[in-house]
Amino acid sequence: IAAEKGEYRHFMQKEIHEQVRSLTDTLAGRVNFDEGKVRLPHLNLTPEKALRIKQVILTACGTASYAAQVGEVLIERIARIPAKTVIASELRYNDPIIDENTVVLAISQSGETADTLAAMDECRKRGATLWSIVNAIGSQAMRVADGYISMQAGPEIGVASTKAFTAPLVDLYILAVLLADLRGVITPEQRRKLVSDLRLVPDLVGRCLDREAGVIQVAREMKYIHNMLYLGRGINMPIAFEGALKLKEISYIHAEGYAAGEMKHGPIALVDRDMPVLAIAPRDPWYEKMISQIEQARARGGGVIVVATDGDERVAALADHVFWIPETPWMLSPVVTVIPLQLFAYHIASLKGLDVDQPRNLAKSVTVE
Ligand code: G6P
């Protein structure tokens, strides 16, 4: 097993670094940059089928459910189809309102998570069209679906999911563009721009990985903290949830992900010197709102780490530490903003000497309810 990790200490670190490759593979065969078009052959979509869709319900557990939340934003914004995420353990008992014009899209690395499979089953009985985005080829979630997208993450060993988080983010973006095109809600120019932005993704992620040393430095300083608040808005709100989850899972530090705009309705009461805040503030449509929330946290004495765009001195001036990311089209920014958060959680756990790949009480795939 040591050999398979190559130069890395843990599978998780190896898998974080594999993301340039996995995202390159995710684009291959699906994106035609010359024509500015995308394809997802295993969904068997036609304009007629795409036009019949009245709503998309995304369902998943854990990290995959945060990918789903990003997907919900992309499907609504790009394809203009009502979309919502319901975690699988809830959906199956929710008496969901579903008909034959509903698509239920399950996301799962393993394709064997019990709650996700049960939610699919329930929705099938109610007449939904079932799609899945799955990493493990031939798994149940792939077999029972009417159509699927095969994640190109490659085998993931570390219990805390990393490359099987970013791959579906790109799959969901491609899906949103495809639906928008088939439904005729974007112009050819808009489509070409959305498609050409995809070309940047592997390189942007690679540039974040090149900055690992900066993240390690912050991890060294922060490794003894007991609490942390992650804040994000809009398309990066689920990245706050995912960043906090990564820290909890492998470093056993209490971390909460929160919608930044909700901070004033509760969590601000907790912010003091012992409760650092990590704010995700790329130059996306929610940027100005994030700035004011960072100012509020700072005014209460909380240490602030920000994820910010290269050259953004305004936000850097408000922070104790900055995880710099390259300028990224905002609809793809979650793929990039999550990278320093994966590295941060990994290095805190690794500096503490914890069992990063096999954290206590957790399983890679939860096949019981
Ligand atoms: C477990 C794993 C998580 C994963 C979740 C969903 O809790 O530890 O990393 O996100 O299951 O798994 P799935 O295979 O359905 O993506």
Automatic annotation (TrEMBL):
<dbReference type="GO" id="GO:0097367">
    <property type="term" value="F:carbohydrate derivative binding"/>
</dbReference>
<feature type="domain" description="SIS">
    <location>
        <begin position="218"/>
        <end position="359"/>
    </location>
</feature>
<dbReference type="GO" id="GO:0005975">
    <property type="term" value="P:carbohydrate metabolic process"/>
</dbReference>
<comment type="function">
    <text>Catalyzes the first step in hexosamine metabolism, converting fructose-6P into glucosamine-6P using glutamine as a nitrogen source.</text>
</comment>
<keyword id="KW-0032">Aminotransferase</keyword>
<dbReference type="GO" id="GO:0005829">
    <property type="term" value="C:cytosol"/>
</dbReference>
<dbReference type="GO" id="GO:0006487">
    <property type="term" value="P:protein N-linked glycosylation"/>
</dbReference>
<keyword id="KW-0677">Repeat</keyword>
<keyword id="KW-0315">Glutamine amidotransferase</keyword>
<feature type="active site" description="For Fru-6P isomerization activity">
    <location>
        <position position="364"/>
    </location>
</feature>
<dbReference type="GO" id="GO:0046349">
    <property type="term" value="P:amino sugar biosynthetic process"/>
</dbReference>
<dbReference type="GO" id="GO:0006002">
    <property type="term" value="P:fructose 6-phosphate metabolic process"/>
</dbReference>
<protein>
    <recommendedName>
        <fullName>Glutamine--fructose-6-phosphate aminotransferase [isomerizing]</fullName>
        <ecNumber>2.6.1.16</ecNumber>
    </recommendedName>
</protein>
<dbReference type="GO" id="GO:0006047">
    <property type="term" value="P:UDP-N-acetylglucosamine metabolic process"/>
</dbReference>
<dbReference type="GO" id="GO:0004360">
    <property type="term" value="F:glutamine-fructose-6-phosphate transaminase (isomerizing) activity"/>
</dbReference>
<comment type="subunit">
    <text>Homodimer.</text>
</comment>
<keyword id="KW-0963">Cytoplasm</keyword>
<feature type="domain" description="SIS">
    <location>
        <begin position="46"/>
        <end position="185"/>
    </location>
</feature>
<keyword id="KW-0808">Transferase</keyword>
